[in-house]
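Page 47, continued from p. 46.
Same chain as before, 152 aa.
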Amino acid sequence: MKNGINFNLYEHELIYRSLVLTPDERFGLGLMFKAGNRLEYDNEIHTRFVLVIVLRGEGTLYDETGEKFNLKAGMSFKRIPGRAETLSIKDDRKWVEFFIEIGPALYQALRSMRIIETNPLCENIEIDVDFFASSSVCAVNQSSLTLEISGS
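Result:
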């Protein structure tokens, strides 16, 4: 589909907008659509803080100590700078995530003000995941990052 994303057909799509302050420092947010049955990260260390909210799909997250988190729609997890993680997306489930990414300096400033906490790493949050599960088409306006989602 030229101006939209069909949730049932996508392989890997990304909608991302960011404010770049320096090459290493930015604030960004986006939606990522991924096919299932894949290892996304294998013991990868991230340089930026990322808050991820799973809107659709299932997966498994392992933190640097080997603690396992079973992920599903309606859960969030954090990528903490300097900490390793392993993330796999299950079977043929279609994964959709919303994320907010911030650079190291802003991350440290927000941590010092206690606005960002590193624990818990993974938790359930209150979102209407049934809405996303029943949606079939997501029309995307790339210039303004607006979405139109129609139910099935």
